[in-house]
Design brief:
- The protein has 587 residues and is of the alpha+beta class.
- Helices cover 52% and strands 10% of the residues.
- The strands form four sheets. The protein has a five-stranded antiparallel β-sheet, with helices on both faces.
- Helix 1 packs across helix 4, helix 3 crosses helix 4 and helix 19 crosses helix 20.
- The chain is globular.
- It binds zinc ion.
- Zinc ion binds next to loops.
- Zinc ion (ZN) binds next to loops.
Length: 587
Amino acid sequence: MAEAGSFAERVKNQADIVRVIGEYVRLKKSGQNFTGLCPFHGEKTPSFAVHPVKQIFHCFGCGKGGDVFSFVMEVEKCPFPEAVKIVAEKCGIPVPRPKERTPEERRENQQRAALIEIHREAQSFFAQQLESTPEGRVARAYLEDRGLNADAIARFGIGYAPSGGDALLRHVKPKFAEKLLVESGLISQDQSGARLFDRFRKRITFPIANEAGKIVAFGCRALGDELPKYLNSPETPIYSKSNVLYHMDRAKETIRRQDFAVLVEGYMDAIAVARAGIANVVASCGTSLAEPQIKLLGRFTKRVIVNYDPDAAGQAATERSLSLLLENDFEVKVLALPAISNKKADPDLFIRENGAEAYIKTLKEAPAYVEYLIGRARQMDLTTGEGKQRALNFLMPYVQKIPNQLLRSEWATRIAQQLRIDEPVLRAALNKSAAERRSEVKVASQLVGKPAKQIERRLIRMLAEAEGFKRELAQRLQQGRLYEGLETEKIFAALIVAGMSDEPLPATEIGAHFEDRDRRVFFEILFEDAQEPTWEEAESCLEALRRKQIEQELAKLQRTIEANPSGASLRELLERKQELMKQLAAS
Ligand SMILES: [Zn+2]
């Protein structure tokens, strides 16, 4: 909980929940709220809402709700202090140095910090080598030949790892322990462990940053014909290939704003595309996209144009990536660039030959993935039944993954036409596979409470938000015990205690401690469109509750009288009944 005056409270006051949640969920403005697809349960139509003024979120489907911290705790599966830290970092609020709980944590944090420092040091070393050594001059000539001028070199931090074999080692050795240097992956060790040497030699270096913009690895291209042509950093405590997308740190704002990303294979492609003015490009830095990379991308957009190399490996990679993207509910287009004078073109080559504008034009015309796949299937031999079956087997797994049934059906027609396959046969196959699809997650019905009555809802809203009179209102409800027996009794009880305290908590903090069902009702009430409450309205609501209370007592009294009309206390009961009838008439 964000205690008054605490760091957490300060973060909460400065953080914008729409911005923070917007990094995980695609939000659209809708009335006074923002809505999107709930990240906590599977759904196809948005029932997840964020309230920018109250700084709360609520899912009308699964009932999850709370403030910015509860969101991050839930989505990152982390404890409160970690959530505060994450929100602070996202909002650029400096985090006070945390007290590591265990010596182990302390050691890991120090190690990570040192590894990042080594990469920073290596980056400036490589940049300086490219800039001012004879070897570097050769590398620069090569880069210039590839269309990378001084401007691009500076912008993307391109550097050069010299051929000597221990130039970087000699540079960093005085500052860091040998063990750390080996752990960084930039320095290698021979089998005996006795001799250290540079991992990257005679190579152009491209710094790879994590999402936060810290360099965590290098991708390196051989300057000559040395093999392998590309050599990257190994997995280290700060770098996992499957968790990082090249250029993500710079692309993420534009990806969110434009709501799509261009996905290319290598860093040279990403650089070429970014230089063409398309800032929302990322590279998978490997032939195949990994699940964590898709999750990372999915936090910023669910729409992607895949532009991999046109060679066989690139095609296979495209198709593997397609499967994964579709499984993760991405809307995918595929850009297969036309050949340039019989040479298959990757984005880098295409832009160098045809210019940025031509690239942007083809990008805009990129077909939906099914179109691309049909094109691929049509290249197969379709003259025989066997060949058609092969083409169909190739297409079917993808078509199956189209979440929308109508769209799936449309594509079935298209495929039947294009491949000249009997449509009913195709549909039968498709329906069979569709039946095997996992159905959408159903929301647990016990979570869906009965809707609270209008009067209760209004009073709860006033107790939570009517700064002018919520204290008075809490006292009146408490004195008359007017909320007892209501379905929303627990919500009232908590709000009344809070309303009468000298240091009232914000409503969302109180709501965070409710049981699921109550929290759901409470957040729904906070999200309702409602007029400014007045004290007159509050009084009439109180009055209504009072009547209801009397009516309930009367009904109970009546049942007692009828059950035992000859009882000794009959007179008392009748007197009480008279009194209640009078009260009811007066109110
Ligand atoms: Zn939900």
